[in-house]
TrEMBL record, chains A, B, C, D:
GO terms for biological process: glycolytic process. Keywords: Cytoplasm, Glycolysis, NAD, NADP, Oxidoreductase. D-glyceraldehyde 3-phosphate binds at S139, C140, N141, H194, G195. Residues 2-140 form the Glyceraldehyde 3-phosphate dehydrogenase NAD(P) binding domain. Its main location: cytoplasm. It comes from Halorubrum tibetense. This is Glyceraldehyde-3-phosphate dehydrogenase. Its EC number is 1.2.1.59. CDD domains: GAPDH_II_C, GAPDH_II_N. The active site is at C140. Belongs to the glyceraldehyde-3-phosphate dehydrogenase family.
Length: 337, 337, 337, 337
């Protein structure tokens, strides 16, 4: 049993905690949090041991009636792996602390690549993470792109990928994020940093990305073009991608036209939080003209990195092969639509 | 065991089906649907017997690989109560059909009040529904207002209620609904029809409503003013309302500032579909100046009528008292935050 | 000729500058700005003398190729009145500076009431501003409420006004403002500060306000209830309000259903920037039940305070009577739809 | 003087009417409209002769107090060219009528290409329109793409263009259009019809387009990739594009980050209706990697086709060369930022 802690219990942290708790070969020793808000409350309701991330805010937790199991150092003393889910940049500041407690650490995609020994998705980098003390699970967009490009590259060769990312302005609970009634080039320079981030896990792939920010909260949308090294039919591509366990091909008959219906479908299927751990590709959008592949995919920014975090833990702490880890993760979570 | 069927398996229908299936004293005999889309598919996945609403579309279901248990008349022959969750106005056209099969029927708030013998919320109209063959559960906004006004009227007397409803433009999955970047008076005439609808369940209450439509999908927001017959303190009102099982007073410390965080909280609590069956009132918004009470509440349009449908079924088919029915419904669903 | 300068050339400042430039009895001596962006550029294009607000940023203007007429002190030396249109709170910090140059100052509604000798709308407070060295034009929402309540109070007496303000989340060019897909109680406490602000210009009026923030940029929407001291017919109220030069009653036949069509109408009428200097009231929304008046009005946050700034200047610097000032302002701008 | 009429006085029609009225060599004989709403009212206010499109609705105009100059046939009898700006598809139904009155006709991009003898943008198809009795000005998106691709193709050769169109959900006044909080693949199939439409004016260009629909009203956003036949520097491309009179390169120093600030800038410059007749390209987004060009551009759907309509009229009715026509149109309107 790998003993795991989560530091930072927000959008990603709470999902990683649930996912760890669902694994047969892992045990969640607790979660650390800074502020005693409704999320801290729900951690307690779920029966997770709650640790204060800052020792000087113990009083606030007490005041809010939230029982603490200790502070972050206590949690670090009791785990093999800590998953850092703090806001972007905070992970880098925590790194020394984890090392000094001699625990392995998984960081998130908001950190720079050099925060860790290796960048990670299960599909592309499982073996690279084997000997690592620290691993960075790449961002939601990068994860979504890597999962798509890896099988294409293996099957046909990717000459060049060109992707427009229409990013959600904020997560559903973030009321301080815009824009309203605007599509904002962000960054205004092209290509964006997302392409280089993909190359941290798929170093050989040539990819240019352009990013926009839109007044939506549910998912990112990718408009994808890939110049392939071969000229498969659209059906062949569909079959290839349908074989990937973390790609969901939205069937045309389903009548699913956007993120709203996708999340509705996830909730109809009983998914906790309506999470879509899979890339969601519109099957009818997949088309090939010559060697040029086109498609639309949606990525649930809150969820797609969650199974990757689980696999990262296994890669670092066990010698379970990648396929078995992915299968275990998928089964424990219910990945696959 | 009351045998129940659901006709119309959309936003409301699927939730009512789940809620019926969760009751210890009811059995869901099946759901009827018109089109074999992803919702039909998820009904099958949940193990619900699926009936075709139209006998001339059987081929479409077969084509989609969706196994049918029969057509609507078959379902009607096997139930004591049918819950009609068809689009607004379709229920009225179905009424004769239900009567001819001699089944009791529950209609939704999109129908005119005269579709049924009685309009219903558990808090206001349980006994009225006792002898009824047909009952109409009032709309999401009306349910939310009745739940709030009933205890206020009992405790202090409601001299006059004035409510501005900022309504969601469409449900999350409805991509064809606007407005974008606009707040639309809808109807432009004041008072709106919502006030009279409240009087179908609280006939004695004097209420004027004004309605707007906004570019949001998650919840309705009510800005409420009530001129009371007494001058309680805000704390007394808070205590009064906190005692109601289907009112949730959002504590100030929770840091919940809008519908996004409310739904997040519901999902964090493990609620299926993130459903908020309770009115959600901002505790800090509750204020009294003289005899004038003010507050903000949010209503989850997809969910608040669901427990009411369950209680309506019990009122029509059993002699269980209102308190016991409400308690059973609440416990089976998990109402109460 | 009153010599006027504008300090702070943003949303409000540029409109005030245009309005001053349009008055036959005023001369715009220049505008002061902090950053040499596209707004500074358009000031130069309009032929306005441009002053640097900060003497340490002269180089930036030079670098951007924007010719400067001097710095703020130079502008202050050449005017009778400075209109401060800096971001909320900055005006208070500028006050001493204006006093030391012995110029009269007009502040905006983002400042606290005590920034100036008097708070102002032309309809309510023209005479109060006569002897003032400093005047604060109240905010867009307060201006809109005062214009509406003043004639109602005079004609019938206002027993109590209760208003829900559905505020725009940000101005059209503000991409960093939210919310997305949410209606946020802001402030969550009721009543909001808008009521007390109305009383700075209508001290005798009893008003409670509740404020929400919505994902729109074009206008604020007010849902208004007024308990009157009399029981006029809706038509009588319509006639009363139609006589006010800064209230526009949207005729039912116009087919104008929201802010989008209102702005379209303003642009169709050739209004610069599509500005609506008038409150826009839906004529068909005006209704009376007993002594309770209801109506919806929209307020163009960027524009309604602009004619008030002009009248404030005349009140402070001339002995022109209020009616003549308002008529002059209206004619020079084209107020009246 | 070319005598021009406009049939259909909506978003496009009113702009074309204003543009015709502004030309020294054209005279606007009148506009025809179906319904006597606020737009008809503003046509009268502008002094345009108003004609009823339907002879059976004369009473409605009279009732609304709108003076009519006659009906559509009267207008057709008095013009050389009619510009049809009716809703998509209505133009095709009007075609015979125009022919029977022996007037030349300009149609809009909502019609199928075969509605007219030639499809048109001034940059690509001026000579083609010379002998045509009927011309179709291509849609806003197609116009924006053709203006960009034509100079690139001339200078470097376009091997392949790949464009993602993030389209506005509705125009600012259209409250019945969605989506809310969703980015919808529309059409879900790739490539979309926009590519083939570009080839009606640039037959030789190889272009694939993918289209999304977003909850915004102000502009369309294009994420553009072009594989060129040469490898210019980004600066060379900037210089090339800056020479085109209907392309506006947004300078980086302007601080313009999206459609909101673009429209603000247009209004600051005194543009009527805030119209942006030019493609708006973010200068800093223009980048070249190898022979791959990337950039973002925004297209003001309500405005970019307006100067094209004017040039189409000149191409059909005069022998003025293209450059002179474009210059005249630009000067009369004020095109060029
Ligand atoms: N939200 C997304 O869409 C998304 C997707 C993929 C990756 N990520 C990455 O995941 C990481 C976390 O993002 P998130 O969206 O979950 O953020 P979040 O703001 O939702 O959650 C961060 C949590 O960390 C807590 N926290 C803040 N400072 C802390 C500290 N010093 N110690 C302990 N806890 C602290 C906060 O209270 C909060 O609970 C970031 O690197 C982000 O870039 C986010
Ligand atoms: N969505 C809400 O916010 C909400 C809230 C409260 C009450 N209501 C009311 O509930 C009722 C249902 O609304 P909804 O939002 O669930 O609608 P919906 O459109 O989501 O679902 C309606 C379902 O009925 C099916 N249907 C259509 N015609 C049918 C027929 N003839 N026979 C059988 N099935 C048919 C549709 O396929 C769909 O599955 C309406 O009266 C509505 O006013 C809706
Ligand atoms: N925008 C509205 O809806 C609105 C409506 C009514 C009243 N107001 C009030 O008007 C005032 C101005 O608001 P706004 O919306 O025009 O703001 P804004 O941000 O659009 O413009 C402010 C301008 O002031 C400049 N500036 C900043 N600091 C400065 C300084 N120290 N000296 C000189 N210039 C400086 C900025 O560069 C900018 O050009 C505020 O008090 C605000 O509350 C705003
Ligand atoms: N709005 C855009 O973004 C845009 C951009 C480029 C091209 N177009 C195209 O321009 C055309 C007009 O579109 P629009 O957006 O201006 O439409 P619109 O709906 O704004 O205006 C159409 C006008 O035509 C009138 N009308 C309707 N039926 C008529 C009839 N039978 N006879 C005369 N008038 C009639 C309507 O009353 C309305 O005033 C369409 O082909 C459209 O595809 C629109």
């Amino acid at each position: 049993m790998t003993r795991v802690g989560v530091n930072g219990y927000g959008t990603i942290g709470k999902r990683v905690a649930d996912a760890v708790a669902a694994q047969p070969d892992m045990v969640l020793r607790g979660v650390a949090k800074r502020s005693p808000n409704h999320e801290a409350d729900s951690a307690v309701q779920r029966g997770y041991a709650l640790y204060a991330a800052d020792s000087d805010r113990l009083g606030e937790f007490e005041h809010a009636g939230l029982p603490l199991a200790g502070t972050l150092p206590d949690l670090l003393d009791s785990v093999d792996v800590i998953v850092d889910c703090c806001p972007a940049g905070v992970g880098a500041r925590n790194r020394e602390r984890y090392a000094s407690h001699d625990v392995r650490a998984v960081f998130q995609g908001g950190e720079a690549a050099n925060v860790a020994d290796a960048s990670f998705t299960a599909r592309t980098s499982f073996e690279t993470a084997r000997d690592a003390d620290t691993v960075r699970v790449v961002s939601c967009n990068t994860t979504g792109l890597a999962r798509l490009l890896a099988p294409l590259d293996e099957a046909y060769g990717v000459e060049k990928a060109r992707v427009t990312l229409v990013r959600r302005g904020g997560d559903p609970a973030q009321t301080d994020r815009g824009p309203i009634n605007d599509i904002v080039p962000d960054p205004a320079t092209v290509p964006s940093h997302h392409g280089p981030d993909v190359r941290t896990v798929l170093p050989e792939v040539d990819i240019d990305t352009a990013a926009l920010k839109a007044p939506v909260t549910a998912m990112h949308t990718h408009s994808v073009n890939v110049s392939l090294g071969a000229a498969p039919t659209a059906d062949e591509v569909r079959e290839l991608l349908a074989r990937e366990s973390r790609l969901f091909l939205i069937p045309e008959v389903a009548g699913i036209d956007g993120a709203g219906k996708l999340k509705e479908y996830a909730l109809d299927c009983g998914r906790p939080r309506g999470d879509l751990w899979e890339n969601c590709l519109w099957a009818e959008s997949i088309s090939v003209s010559g060697t040029d592949l086109y498609l639309f995919q949606n990525v649930h920014q809150e969820a797609d990195v969650v199974p990757e975090n689980i696999d990262a833990i296994r890669a670092m702490t066990t010698d379970i092969p990648v396929d078995e880890s992915v299968t275990r993760t998928n089964e424990a979570l219910g990945v696959g639509l």
